[in-house]
Write the structure tokens for this entry.
Amino acid sequence: MSHSDTLLDWPKLFAQYSQPALLADWLAQVLDGLAQEQQLLNQASELGEIQVAQRIQLQGLAAVVCSPRLTYLLEQSKHSDPAQHPELIAQCQACLTAIEHELQRYLQQQ
């Protein structure tokens, strides 16, 4: 598995939030805001491309949840042929859904 296939970099998240309670609280807040990012991807899907402002916001999410996979997909969308955009958007949507499920799973274990 390459680094770009990693959904979440848990060691990095644990290093940033040394207290599990703080990490859980912060991830719960991120989880509450994921609907907005899903909406951005739905808009991108309708347009057939991820616009610059949408990409920046999604890259911010990828950075705060330490998601190499989402970062990689967004970078690919930036440099890809427009014909590839619908597939990349679908992959971003699937990645975001997987991130949501992973965060929910982690929080249920806390």
User: Anything to note?
Assistant: DSSP finds five helices and no strands in the chain. The chain has a mean pLDDT of 91.
